[in-house]
């Protein structure tokens, strides 16, 4: 009986103590929660699924209402921002608290592996250091320029033949193949030659990678993708097949080099023009640099870039971000924000990048986010600009282009990278008789 009384007394004391603690702590916790405020809700991840084919239009519409907003998901909240101040905070000021995380890694690693685009911490720092050294060497810069000039000559020959026959061509496909050829040659010394079609492996690699990229992005809205991966069905079975094709081709071409096409280059009518586009000449092409930059402002290669918040935080706008939240900035939407670029933000206007003397004036990388910013800023930025400027100078200087069907709308395909859906089919005409002779 005494034992029972003691037990009841101890239990009662524990309950009373707990109530006292709760009454003391609960108001404090509620007060702290009230102090926190969260970004406005733009919708749910289901809305992304419903608008997937026009995803960037949908998200630009939300960004025009709220510079930063939330989409609610079954397992996490997703925060999207087009505010340059928030972008700078997550990409630079508090860089260590925002990384790829397990969420992005699981979605992308089947395609991109443990590469610099999917990892954080020491793995990322090591790869960044090695890559940074490679991109900064004069040998790499000089060699890449030689490769770009040689490949633009090959592309100009293809376009010239099509122009002579008045034959439409998919210029996006040719640009993608020429870029792929350049990367393989510069990075691995391999003559992939996918652009000229003499290497079937190049075409297969490009197609497999594009398909795998689209499916990898689909994972962000497909809550069942892990189930499909486990049973190897549906889109996940396709992804596995496409990645295997890409890996096998990668292994084959990086272990076997083919001879160069230097002799063919000497026979082209475009060699002299391409060789005149020197690095010194490129430095003076301010309007061309502005035109390319303006294109990237409106059509960035990566339209949305996501990170994960590693610990509870507060953005400069005063709104709370919780551990595990996905945090993404939106280059595509940011290029269309009046608050950032003015009332003419949706107009293609290279002049916005030039001063009164016609000299190019860069903007903050947290405003123009096509190449990321902060410690993760794209190492290949100058590499990309050099290729685009060499190709643009030679091709625009040699041909006039127009859409093969000007009544057909041009739309994007929703992938990790921004692609024109179905390709960009154009007709070309020679600017002068010398090019077609």
From TrEMBL:
Its cofactor is heme. Heme binds at residue 378. Gene3D superfamilies: Cytochrome P450. Keywords: Heme, Iron, Membrane, Metal-binding, Monooxygenase, Oxidoreductase, Transmembrane, Transmembrane helix. Pfam families: p450. The chain crosses the membrane at residues 6-26. The keyword Membrane applies. The keyword Transmembrane helix applies. InterPro entries: Cyt_P450 (IPR001128), Cyt_P450_E_grp-IV (IPR002403), Cyt_P450_sf (IPR036396). One of its GO terms (molecular function) is iron ion binding. Belongs to the cytochrome P450 family. This is Cytochrome P450.
């Amino acid at each position: 009986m005494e034992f029972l009384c003691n037990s009841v007394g101890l239990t009662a004391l524990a309950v009373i103590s707990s109530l006292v603690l709760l009454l003391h702590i609960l108001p404090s916790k509620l007060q702290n929660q009230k102090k926190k405020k969260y970004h406005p809700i733009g919708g749910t991840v289901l809305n992304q699924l419903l608008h997937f084919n026009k995803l960037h239009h949908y998200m630009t519409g939300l960004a025009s209402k709220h510079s930063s907003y939330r989409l609610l998901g079954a397992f996490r909240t997703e925060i999207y921002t087009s505010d340059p101040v928030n972008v700078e905070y997550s990409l630079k000021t508090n860089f260590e608290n925002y990384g790829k995380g397990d969420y992005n890694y699981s979605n992308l690693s089947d395609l991109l592996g443990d590469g610099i685009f999917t990892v954080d911490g020491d793995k990322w720092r090591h790869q960044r250091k090695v890559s940074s050294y490679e991109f900064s060497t004069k040998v790499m810069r000089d060699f890449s320029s030689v490769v770009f000039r040689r490949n633009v000559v090959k592309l100009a020959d293809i376009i010239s033949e099509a122009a002579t026959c008045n034959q439409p061509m998919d210029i996006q496909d040719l640009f993608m193949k020429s870029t792929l050829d350049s990367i393989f040659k510069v990075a691995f010394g391999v003559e992939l030659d996918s652009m000229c079609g003499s290497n079937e492996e190049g075409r297969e690699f490009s197609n497999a990678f594009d398909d795998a990229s689209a499916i990898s992005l689909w994972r962000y809205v497909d809550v069942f993708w892990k189930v499909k991966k486990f049973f190897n069905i549906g889109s996940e079975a396709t992804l596995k097949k496409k990645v295997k094709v890409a890996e096998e081709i990668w292994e084959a071409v990086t272990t076997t080099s083919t001879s160069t096409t230097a002799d063919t280059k000497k026979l082209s009518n475009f060699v002299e023009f391409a060789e005149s586009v020197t690095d010194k000449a490129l430095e003076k092409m301010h309007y061309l640099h502005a035109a390319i930059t303006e294109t990237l402002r409106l059509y960035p290669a990566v339209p949305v870039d996501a990170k994960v918040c590693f610990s509870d935080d507060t953005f400069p706008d005063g709104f709370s971000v919780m551990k595990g939240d996905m945090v993404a900035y939106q280059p595509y939407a940011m290029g269309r924000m009046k608050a950032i670029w003015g009332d003419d933000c949706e107009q293609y206007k290279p002049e916005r990048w030039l001063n009164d003397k016609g000299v190019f004036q860069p903007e903050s990388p947290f405003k123009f986010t096509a190449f990321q910013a902060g410690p993760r800023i794209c190492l290949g930025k100058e590499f990309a600009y050099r290729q685009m400027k060499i190709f643009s100078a030679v091709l625009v200087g040699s041909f006039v282009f127009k859409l093969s069907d000007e009544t057909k709308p041009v739309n994007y395909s929703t992938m990790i990278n921004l692609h024109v859906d179905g390709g960009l089919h154009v007709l070309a005409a020679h600017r002068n008789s010398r090019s077609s002779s």
